UniProtKB/TrEMBL annotation:
Organism lineage string: Eukaryota, Metazoa, Ecdysozoa, Arthropoda, Hexapoda
Gene Ontology BP, a term: proteolysis
UniProt xrefs under InterPro entries: Peptidase_S1_PA, Peptidase_S1_PA_chymotrypsin, Peptidase_S1A, Serine_Proteases_S1, Trypsin_dom, TRYPSIN_HIS
Any GO CC annotation of this UniProt entry: extracellular space
Protein name from the UniProt record: Peptidase S1 domain-containing protein
């Protein structure tokens, strides 16, 4: 199960589909122009720590769990139009960061949304476009449907985290490992919501208020995953 939970079928510049913008485990290298609405969210000192999607000229959507440790806007920037981590494209300083006021309520990772407003415009070009969001008429994805995910992140998993908190991070997000220097993409399969909710993973962490909600989508593809 990946950390960010918004999923849609295979994207293109002119349709109403968009992938998750997180980190990728066992993916393949993306080609230039594959996902021009994806951006890297960076710390001005330490570099990329999450991915996001361009909503319009001034706003980017990303995950609230990227900001669990509060980050002031003046140390956050957005890199658009680049496949390489911490290089290329155009850099846009953050002006304002708005974390969903119900993030983690009533359950861990629910309402996992953050908006970032940038100071200088994100103008559309062949390498930067605005993401097409789903509407109220968008069909719910059925079990077995293939979806696409893209992002920067680790290419291998880690083991032996030990305690509950570390184990949860390791199993759900795989936050450590060998990080990719390029944008990666993978194909995943939608897993039935009811079957996913009954998975042993959720049963083990009832004390942590971890629950699959209607704001999330599950995927199951052996050997492939997304991470926070």
């Amino acid at each position: 199960m990946g950390g960010q939970c918004y999923w849609f079928p295979k994207p293109s510049v002119n349709n109403n589909n968009s992938p998750k913008a997180g980190k990728i485990y066992n993916g393949e290298k993306a080609e230039s122009g594959d996902y021009p609405f994806l951006v890297a969210i960076e710390h001005t000192w330490f570099g990329q720590f999450c991915g996001g999607s361009v909503l319009n000229e001034y706003w980017v959507i990303t995950a609230a769990h990227c900001f669990i440790e509060e980050k002031a806007a003046d140390i956050v920037q957005v890199r658009a139009g680049s496949l390489e981590i911490d290089e290329g494209g155009t850099v846009h300083k953050a002006e304002k960061i708005i974390v969903h006021n119900k993030f983690g309520k009533p359950f861990l990772f629910d309402n996992d949304i953050t908006l970032i407003k940038v100071e200088n415009r994100l103008d559309e070009n062949p390498y930067v476009t605005f993401v097409n969001l789903p509407t109220s008429h968008t069909k719910i994805l059925k079990s077995g449907v293939k979806v696409y995910a893209a992002g920067w992140g680790i290419t291998s998993s880690v083991k032996n985290w030990g305690k509950l908190g570390d184990e949860l991070v390791s199993e759900s997000n795989r936050l450590s490992g060998v990080r990719s220097n390029f944008l990666l993409k993978i194909t995943l399969n939608i897993l039935d919501h009811n079957k996913c909710a009954k998975a042993d993973f959720f049963k083990r962490y009832t004390d942590a208020d971890l629950k699959l909600t209607n704001n999330m989508i599950c995927t199951l593809t052996i050997g492939k995953d997304t991470t926070a």
